[in-house]
Amino acid sequence: MDTVSAGTGLFAVSASLQTIGEDVLIAVWGGTLPHIGALAVAIPHPESTPERERSSTVLQFSFPGHRDEVVARRVAERVASALQRTVAVSAGIHIPDITPDGIEAVLANTDALIENSIIVLRGKYHD
Questions:
Q1: Is the pTM of this model over 0.85?
Q2: Per-residue pLDDT tens for 51-83?
Q3: Which residue ranges make up each domain of the chain?
Q4: What number does CATH give the domain 2-97?
């Protein structure tokens, strides 16, 4: 299992990456109270051959009172599309009284986390 992070301070996000056969399991967390607030599973569409046009079907579930589905979905969809593998993601980032600028910072760090995750996972699959 590998761990990757992006950002610093309160808006930093981290993830554990685990390969399970041909599939990927990712847990994303951050803020003052990491938790499991949402789940997403992405299944790639292999017929989408050019990498920039690859897509995935995503199923998601949010626990009541949580808003982590945006992060879970974003990570699952982009990693599955890039690697052409099934990806399951849990996400839980809690930042009290977060502002719209704080949300943007978390999402920007999530995007960097996704890129770091793809690099690490590509090395494991030798794609």
A1: yes
A2: 556 678 899 999 999 999 999 999 999 999 999
A3: 2-97
A4: 3.30.230.100
